[in-house]
Structures are given as structure tokens and as C-alpha cells.
Amino acid sequence: MEVNQYLEVFIDESKEHLQAINENLLLLEKSPDDLAIVNEIFRSAHTLKGMSATMGYEDLANLTHKMENVLDAIRNHKLHVTAEILDVVFSSIDDLEAMVQDIAAGGAGKRDVTDIVDKLLKIENGETVHADSSAQTEAAPSVSPSSAVKYDEFEYTVIQQSKEQGFTCFEVEVELRADCVLKAARVFMVFEVLEKCGEVIKSTPSTEELESEQFDERFVVTLITQEAANDIESKVKKVSEVERVAVSEFVAQPLDTGEAAKEVAAASAPAPAPTASVPKKAEKQEEPKPGKQAAVSNKTIRVNIERLDILMNLFEELVIDRGRLEQISGELNNPELNETVERMSRISGDLQTIILNMRMVPVETVFNRFPRMVRQLARDLNKKINLEIIGAETELDRTVIDEIGDPLVHLIRNAIDHGIEMPEERRAKGKREEGTVKLKAYHSGNHVFIEIEDDGAGINKHKVLDKALAKGVVTEEQAASMTDNQIYELILASGFSTADTISDISGRGVGLDVVKTTIESLGGSISIEAAEGAGSTFLIQLPLTLSIISVMLVEVEQEKYAIPLSSIIETAIVKKEDVFNAHTQQVIDFRGKIVPLVFLEKIFEVPKESQEDDFYSIVIVRKGDKMAGLVVDSFIGQQEVVLKSLGNYLSNVFAISGATILGDGQVALIVDCNALIK
Amino acid sequence: MSEIAAPSMIKVIAFQLMDKEYAFPVHQVQGIEKLIHITRVPGTVPFIKGVINLRGVVTPIIDLRNRFNLPEKEYDEQTRIIIASCDDIEVGLVVDSANDVLDIPKSIIEPQPDVVGAVEAEYITGVAKLEKRLLILLNLERVFK
């Protein structure tokens, strides 16, 4: 079977299912008696098993199957949900994730899972040894007395389930003639015949060995079918050079004795199914329905982000042409033409909104990995933590989503490790033992805000200041004039870590300054509010999209540059005599503050042509609390532009963060103000 | 012998720089554009002329004359930008004119003679003599560096 084309779908869906299992397991931990959740998990696991078996990832299917057995035992009230069981299930999910990752990376999805399989089997058997359980029956390798073929559990389950659905399982023994020349070809023909009759689930020797003719004249094929043994026999015999065909029914006989055996004996059917798996099957048939309904109500297709980028690029070209058309129709002043162009403008406006919206993804995709992480951290640190997520449906541009994950992980780790106190400490302070971490996302204007709030120890102002002074992050003079919030923000400065001991959760010294840098590189900002003893809040402000930004277009000689509006405070025109010289640096007095001037024509080595006049046009920009005045020749105006990268070839151009295409089709460079302010 | 491009043939694009003809394999060519406005990018090496808007994609431009240390020349009607790609990088090359696309037998490609001109040998994979024309074959990867 050609599976490559399904591989992408398989990987995506596997990830979704694993995520669903993760989420539901967390829910299950909170309400261990809710069987609906177990069913939900079981359904995901079952689908995953089926998919991976179809795709030929045996290890994946095998581990999922073992996990499913444990879930099944829980579902059938044979096991009680405990933290230990969940730990094992979680770690098997980790393994599954690793395998899927491996497959996504082009690997074979193989992984040594014996350890975890053992654990799963122990759990499964731990409580089910005495009762007759489907799990135990399945776990017992079963060999039919009539056959030398050995089946593993997975195949065994398939056989049993198909029997319950009215299929029969045959072992077809085929012997080729000794003088047969093209054995592999005959085998292929036999398989073709058999596959028309039903489903081949196993062959002995394996198909690979058969294909490479590594067998004598004889091989056995296990077939699930609804046809009669005689028919199959005669059909296979029609293949030439087949010496002998023997079709025998495979009877699955559970090996366990005791109660189960009695029930087996009581049932006179030739293929007795263990009683425990009957309700299981009934449930299974009911289960797919709600799943299918959910799928129908939410139709989506997957589109590669690159295609959306191309669509966007083409659309921008259209917008540029639209501008020209509008200009031409304005000049010609033909009412019909005007009307058509106006209509087109409106339609393309709508189109633009749709294209931009297509790139929006709910922050849920980032947030949904946190509950699991918080649980693990809380267990590792012996803390009690409740994670609240609010506004997971808030949408952000895909490009922002991709970048924001790591900083958030960092901040949440920080909140849990340094923020939330140990339970005893919390009790002593009169707080609830369980600490709360709130993760909140919401839209406001053209920005998205993400808040990470904890009700932990807050930030000790003096400790931060002392440390900052000791590390030389600030000087005594600076420290004296700092506000509380400015002091808190020191923990985001590079070379700063407040934890007394370095743990591997956070506080590796690289810490929060990385967060700050990442967020600023996304065009966002981060601020901190804290009250000692009552907790702290990290507020992240992000642009809705990275692909469209508001800029101020300026002219320097003949060249046009774009300065992001987010870093502009205001523009000013200053007389030359108002410029002072502070040592070698030219500065101006701007509303009582000394602001250094940066001459763009010098920084960007613009070829000089025009005469200097008596005034400087200045754009005041800021980076944090620092300001600078960019000297330009003239202001053109404010505009929304589409941000483009300069490509791989021109990475790391000083003080240029990207480019954009203007209405006339020319490229204008975007000034990186952060690089111009030290 | 027939002119069918057998594996022993190589299809190249030939272009003019000063009085010499250069060439590189045609599969590295994305397109040939007439000269359009080039936006200068400050703080780059001199041979990078800037960037252009190539149907919505910002594409860097290398002036090959400058790259090969040849005297500069005003751009004119004949000036072309050959969009070339190599290792995921797409770059436009400014050339005096784009001549044509040719099949040349691999057998006639010879290593560069000791003295060929001002161009440094590191960009050159070989030369091919084709009737009266001498084609200098370029290694784009090295040109981009």
C-alpha cells in the first residue's frame, strides 16, 4: 500500500489524539470516577492503535494496545484510577509522542518500550489476576492446538473481535510444487486470491520472507473471512503450481482455567469468546457515533502555512495593482469604470480580511500543553498547584503562536518554581495549600494580552535590588530613583537569577532575559506587577499579527525607510541651534529629557545629495525607558504595511529588521529601533 | 550525431559581462527580469546592490561586475537580472545582457586555463569552447559567498 500520502495526515491526527488523551487524563485525575472520560480516552487510544497498525507502525500499535488494556480494565471497574497508574499511562503517552515525533522526522517509529509495557502489564494484571478479565485473556499468548502458528496479543484480539462480528478465521496452508520457479510470484497470486475473499492478518513465514523466497514450499496464511472453507480451498487451488491447499478453522482458545474456562465450557459455540470482551465490543460499536457527529459539525482541511504565505504574497500584488487602477480610474473619470473599480476595492478588502483570518490560530494550541507540564512540575516539586486557563480561544497569528510557546513555558515554570510556596509554608501564611496559576489571554485593540498570574510569594523588592547591585545590573544612583515596577523588571535583565539555589526547573541563569528578548523580537512587551506575599503577575503584550504592522514612512535623501509605530513616541522638528553637544554626542532637550540624536543618513550611509537646511526632522523612538531621536529628511506618513523578511541570504543586516513593499511596488526597509538604542 | 540532450550534455544559460561570456546550469535559473528599482540595503558588502520586489518576494541582488571586480557600468536597456537559486537561497544577478540558453557537451568542458582574466578562479568550474564562443562556467555557490 502506498502510505506516504497518508503519512502527514497520520502524524497530524496522531498528535491530536495524543493531545486529547493528555487532556482527558488530566481531567480524569481530577474526577477519577467519571467513566465518560475514560471512554473518551479509550476512543482516542483505539483510533490511534488502528491508525498506527494500518500504517505499519507495530511498536506504536503495540504500546497503544497495552495502554488500551489498562484503560479497558478501568472502564470495566476492574481497576481504580490512582496517581501511580496515571503516571505510567502518562509516561507511555510520552513514549508514544516520542515515536510519533520520530515518524514525523522520517524515522521508523521504533522505540524500546519494554519497560513501560512491563509496567502496564503489571498494572493490568495486578488487580485482575483473580477475576476473569478480558485483559488477562488478551495478555495470554494463545496457541491454537491445531496450529503451529503463533499469534501475538494484538492479532489474537483482532481474531476474537472479528469472530464476534460473525467472521471466521481460517488458517490456509499452501504448499507449492517443488519445481516451482517463481515462488514469490505464486505467493503473490495466492495472496491476491485470499485478499479478495477476506482480510489477511498474518502469514507464516512473514510476507517479507515470502517475497524474498526465504521459505520451503509451504506457508500458512491466516485469513478472516465470511466465506466457507471449501470455497477458499478451491479458489486458491486455481493458482497454478500449487501442490496442496489445506484450510482449517482457527479456534481461539483462551488458556486460563478456573471461572473463565467454566464459562467457556458452558458455551457450546465452537469459537467461544471470553465473556468479558462481549460488553466491550458492544460499547465499541456505540462509541464511534458521537465521535463522528463531532467530526461532521466541525469541517476543516489542513493547509500548509507556506501556501497561505504564497496566497498572501499574491494578494499583496493584487492590492498594489488595485491602487494603480484606482489612480487611473480617478484620472479618466469614467463613471462606469469608477463604479467597477470601487466594487473591486471593496471585494478585495473583504478578501484581505479573510486571508488574514486564515492565519489566525487560537492560543489553545500553545496552552494545551501546559496542564500536563504543570502537573508534572507540581509532582516533582511536591507542591499543590491548580492551573486555570482563561480565554484559550483567543486568536493570534500563526507566526506569533509558533514563537510564544517557549517564553510561556519559562514564565510558568518560573511562577511554579519561584512563585508558589511549599504547602506547609502556604498554610503558615494562612493561604490555601493549593496554589493557583492563572493563564489568561484576551484581545485589546490591536494587541493580544497574555497574563500569567500566581498567588505565590510575589517578588521581594529588596532582594531583587541587592542582587541587581551585587551583579552590577544597576548602579546605586540608578537604584535610588527606580519605581517598584522598574525594580521588578530587573529580574528580566540578563545575568539575573533570584533563586537561592539553582534547580533544574528554572533558574539556570539564562532565565527570564531570554523571555524578554523573545517577546521584544516579536514586537511585544512584558511587564510585571507584584505584591510581596500575595503573588505576581507577568503581563505580555503581543501584536495581533506579525505580518502586518503600522509604520511611519520617512525619507532620507532619496531613500524611504519605515519605522515601526510601536516604538515611536512622537515626531518633532527641531532648530539646528537647539541641538547641544554632550561630549561627542549630539543631543536635544526633549520635554525636559536629554535625548541623543541618531543620524539615519550616517548610520545607513545614504549617498548625500541635498543641501542641509536649518531644521532637523526627528522621530523620537524608545526602547524600554531609553529614548533616541532619529534624524530624517522628511516624514511621509503613517501606513499599514506587510512585513517581509530579507531572506536567508541577507540575514543580520545592522539596524534593519525586515522589508516591506510600498504601493508603487518598491521595497522599503524597516528600521530596527532596538538596535539603534544601546 | 543528434542534438538530443543526452546525459552527456548540459544545458546552460549564457550571459555577457564586459567582453566575456559566462554561463551556469539552467536548472538554477528561476527567471530573467528586466531592470526594476533596486532598494539599497545599508551595511552590506559592496557587491550586494540591494533588494527588489520580485512578485511580492523581497529578493537580494548581486552586481556580478562588482562581484568579479570588473569596472562598473551604467545600467541600460540590455541590463538583465537573472534570478538564480542555489541551496534554498534565491538571488538576482545583474548582468550586462542575457544571451541565450545552450546545450554544451560535457566533454568539451575543460579546467580553467592558468590565465583567463580578472575573475578569480574560485568561482569558475571550467571553460567550454563552443565554435567561436568561449563560455566561462560559474559555480554559483561560490559566487554567493
TrEMBL record, chain A:
> Residue ranges of the Histidine kinase domain?
337-546
Query: What residue stretches are annotated with the CheW-like domain?
Result: 548-678
Classify the source by domain of life. Answer: Bacteria
The record places domain HPt at 1-103
As stated in the Swiss-Prot or TrEMBL entry, residues carrying the post-translational modification Phosphohistidine are: H46
Q: Does the keyword Nucleotide-binding apply?
A: yes
Annotated region (Disordered) at 263-295
Q: Which UniProt keywords apply?
A: ATP-binding, Chemotaxis, Kinase, Nucleotide-binding, Phosphoprotein, Transferase, Two-component regulatory system
This enzyme's EC code(s)? 2.7.13.3
- Compositionally biased residues, Basic and acidic residues: 280-290
Which residues fall in a compositionally biased region of kind Low complexity? 263-279
Catalytic activity annotation: ATP + protein L-histidine = ADP + protein N-phospho-L-histidine
> InterPro entries of this UniProt entry?
Bact_Chemotaxis_CheA, CheA-like_dim, CheA-like_homodim_sf, CheA-like_P2_sf, CheA_P2-bd, CheW-like_dom_sf, CheW-lke_dom, CheY-binding_CheA
SMART domains found in the cross-reference section: CheW, H-kinase_dim, HATPase_c, HPT
GO molecular function annotation:
kinase activity
Q: What is this protein called?
A: Chemotaxis protein CheA
* Species assigned in the record: Bacillus badius
Automatic annotation (TrEMBL), chain B:
PANTHER family tied to this protein: CHEMOTAXIS PROTEIN CHEW (PTHR22617:SF23), CHEMOTAXIS SENSOR HISTIDINE KINASE-RELATED (PTHR22617)
- In this chain the CheW-like domain maps to 9-145
Family annotation (InterPro entries) = CheW, CheW-like_dom_sf, CheW-lke_dom
* Pfam families the record matches: CheW
Family annotation (SUPFAM superfamilies): CheW-like
Lineage start: Bacteria, Bacillati, Bacillota, Bacilli, Bacillales
Q: Which domain of life is it from?
A: Bacteria
What is the name listed in the Swiss-Prot or TrEMBL entry for this protein?
Positive regulator of CheA protein activity (CheW)
